[in-house]
Predict the 3D structure of the following.
Amino acid sequence: EVVVPRGVTAHVVPLVVVEVSDVSLADASAVTLARLELADVLVEPGGRIPFRLDVPEAARNARLAVHAHVDANGTRAFSEGDLLTTQHVSVPSLGDVERVEVPVARI
């Protein structure tokens, strides 16, 4: 679930993007393993945006992270008013995950 901060005003955003990436290599770009786009999503203060994302299993020693972009204007670019994941949120590289909380903050 994407966890929305309490200080936002309730509104519908045109796009929410959730991605899981392999961030194992510090000196290389992260590799996106799975991506989900949700359209016309109601964002409420302190609310949660549920999602389900199928991620292929990675190597046992892979470091995977999930991040979200609540795109306030639907441009797919980061802009003022968007909500973004600003901290590392790990997910296991093997097996199923029932629930993960992905907090976002306003930029």
User: Anything to note?
Assistant: The chain has a mean pLDDT of 94. The beta strands are 2-3, 11-22, 31-43, 48-49, 64-71, 83-84, 90-91, 102-103, 105-106. The radius of gyration is 14 Å.
